[in-house]
């Protein structure tokens, strides 16, 4: 079909040249362009048709895929945040009866890993604070107990420290109950 169109154009251009409607230079250009276009269209069947309808469909599918990815990212974040909170609480509370050095080293390690997790999840400041709340509470417990790692009844501030520890423990329980709802 493309060759038939090219031959028809060639005959038409020849008639226009014979009638004097176009110059010889124009005739040469038109015949060369028609011959080239005829060969290209004959040789490359894909160039014969431009399918804009399916192109629009593909673009819609790409937009839908972008929306699906965004929804999946939000879902992953909603799953990962509670998981990170569980890890932070477990890391802060376990090993309470080990040596103070290992407890501090482990708490520091957990805090670093939780910070890396918060960065990877691109948490907001409020979410990062919520994630670290258990670590912060257990740090307060450690500060209240002091360097000995135990609450001593012989300590002159025993009653105040005991009351503070009970308050911190109640706060932790309240935080857990609030999140359990």
Mean pLDDT: 79
Label the structural class.
Answer: mainly alpha
Strand content: under 5%
In DSSP terms (H or I, runs of 4 or more residues), the helix count works out at 6
- Count of beta strands: 0
Keywords:
mainly alpha, 2 domains, 6 helices, 81% helix
Task: Report what the structure shows.
This protein is mostly helical and 181 residues long. The chain folds into 2 domains: 2-48; 76-180. It has 6 helices and no strands. The chain has helices at 2-19, 24-43, 52-93, 100-121, 125-145, 158-180. Helix 3 runs parallel beside helix 5, helix 4 (100-121) runs antiparallel to helix 5 (125-145) and helix 5 runs antiparallel to helix 6 (158-180). The longest helix is centred in the middle third of the chain and has 42 residues, at 52-93. It starts with a helix and ends with a helix. The model has no long low-confidence stretch (mean pLDDT 79).
How would you summarize what this structure contains?
The protein is mainly α. It has six helices and no strands.
Q: Secondary-structure blueprint of this entry?
A:
Elements: H1 2-19, H2 24-43, H3 52-93, H4 100-121, H5 125-145, H6 158-180
Helix pairs in contact: 1-2, 3-4, 3-5, 4-5, 5-6
């Amino acid at each position: 079909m493309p060759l038939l169109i090219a031959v028809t154009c060639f005959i038409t251009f020849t008639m226009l040249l014979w009638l004097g409607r176009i110059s010889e230079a124009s005739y040469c250009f038109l015949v060369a362009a028609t011959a080239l276009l005829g060969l290209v269209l004959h040789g490359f069947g894909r160039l014969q048709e431009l399918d804009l309808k399916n192109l629009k469909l593909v673009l819609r599918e790409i937009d839908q895929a972008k929306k699906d990815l965004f929804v999946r990212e939000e879902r992953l974040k909603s799953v990962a945040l509670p998981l990170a909170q569980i890890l932070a609480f477990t890391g802060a509370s376990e090993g309470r009866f080990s040596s103070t050095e290992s407890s501090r080293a482990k708490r520091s390690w957990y805090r670093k890993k939780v910070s890396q997790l918060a960065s990877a999840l691109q948490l907001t400041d409020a979410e990062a604070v919520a994630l670290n709340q258990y670590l912060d509470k257990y740090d307060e417990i450690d500060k209240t107990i002091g360097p000995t790692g135990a609450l001593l009844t012989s300590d002159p501030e025993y009653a105040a420290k005991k009351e503070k520890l009970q308050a911190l423990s109640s706060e932790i329980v309240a935080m857990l109950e609030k999140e359990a709802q």
